[in-house]
Amino acid sequence: MKKNKKCIVLLSGGLDSTTTLYYVLNKGYNPVCLIFDYGQRHKKEINCAKKIAKSLGLKYFIVKFSLPWKGSSLLDKKLKLPIKKQKNIIPSTYVPARNIIFLSFATSLAEVINADFIFYGANQIDFSGYPDCRKVFVDAFQKMINVGTKKGVSGKKIKIVAPLINLSKEEIVKLAVKLKVPLENTWSCYKGGKKPCGICDSCKFRELGFKKAGIVDPLAKR
What we know:
Rossmann fold; five-stranded parallel sheet
């Protein structure tokens, strides 16, 4: 029996998620993209994600929801985005339980369309310290859906895959170039202006990756 290659990819339009999407395509999967509009201040990433999915002729869903209680500087413009990373402190850009919410939507969709895999671009090497970007979280969520879904208890488990989890930003950039990811169409900045701010955590990690890889970021040329 032919293996089910249908999968879900969480697509934000950023470097990591877009590289994950191209990785999935390179491996021969048939992805459906899941894009989230959750009130983030960097809404520009939504348009980037749509553009990427459309350019590849892929089906995508946009899930729109809000967290009225906010609880993050990505959702509450009254809160300042952190400029300096503080060791062992989860930054204010952390959105409470965001990846739990995202992966729950993805799991629901996977059950409906009978997809056996969910891919997302979590990374625990060069990252901001978000607890839901670590392998221990991926493993825990995997256990939950194994026992909490129809597919899971029927012996047709949905596999959560985070192919970039142990890659540095340098390695991710190099992989993106190898996979011919249109890096000029990706967006990482938390501020979401016309140009990347260059000072937020996400911009700094992106800059670090390109610099170490010895590759010029196309967004830096703008």
